[in-house]
Amino acid sequence: MKRIPGDVFVDKDLANGTPGTPLIAEWHNDVQEELVNVITDVSGGNTELDGESQTQLLEAIQTLVSNALADIQTDRIWVRFDGIAGGTIVAGSGVSAITRHGVGDYELHFAITQPDANYGVLGTCSDDTTRGGMIAVYEVGGVATLATTSVRVRTHRAPNNGGIVADQRINTVEIIPSGA
Question: pTM of this prediction?
Answer without folding.
Answer: 0.58
